[in-house]
Design brief:
two-stranded antiparallel sheet, single chain, 0% helix, Thrombin, subunit H, 11 strands, mainly beta, 6-stranded antiparallel β-barrel
C-alpha cells in the first residue's frame, strides 16, 4: 500500500521522488587564526530524493521585482521530501537554508509539514533571491 498526499491538486507518493536535491545549511567554520567564516555545508552530504515541481498560475505571486531600474523575475518551485524533524518535531530545514538542484541554487522561503503527520516536508523555493 502506497501513502499518497495532495500536492498542487495532484496526489504524490514516494515512487514519484525522481529528482534529487542537496540541502545546504549555513555553518560557522574555524578559520585557523581564532575566528570563524560562514560556509554552506550539505546536510545530508549525498542529498535527498524529492518531488520537484514549478509553481505556476495563481500560486506564482510576487514573481518579479525591481532592482535598480530593471525588472528581475523570480522563479518559484516546490520540492517535497520525506520528513526530517528537529528535537521538537518541527521540520529540520528552515528558511535560512538553501537548495542545490541541477547546478542552480534556490532560497528556501518556507518548510512546512503540510498535513501535520510528519510524513513529508514541503519546501517553497525561489531562484534569484539570496539566502
Amino acid at each position: 500500500m502506497t501513502m499518497t498526499t495532495k500536492f498542487c491538486d495532484q496526489k504524490y507518493s514516494a515512487g514519484m521522488m525522481r529528482d534529487r536535491i542537496v540541502i545546504e545549511k549555513k555553518t560557522l567554520v574555524a578559520d585557523g587564526i581564532g575566528g570563524y567564516t560562514e560556509t554552506w555545508v550539505a546536510d545530508p552530504p549525498n542529498g535527498v530524493p524529492c518531488i520537484w515541481k514549478p509553481v505556476v498560475g495563481i500560486y506564482q505571486f510576487n514573481a518579479e521585482t525591481t532592482v535598480g531600474q530593471r525588472l528581475v523575475e523570480f522563479n518559484r518551485f516546490r520540492a517535497v521530501i520525506r520528513f526530517r524533524g528537529d528535537s521538537y518535531g518541527a521540520p529540520y530545514y528552515t528558511a535560512g537554508d538553501r537548495v542545490l538542484h541541477k547546478g542552480r541554487y534556490y532560497a528556501i522561503e518556507s518548510a512546512i509539514d503540510p498535513d501535520g503527520l510528519m510524513d513529508w516536508i514541503e519546501l517553497a523555493l525561489v531562484e534569484g533571491k539570496s539566502s
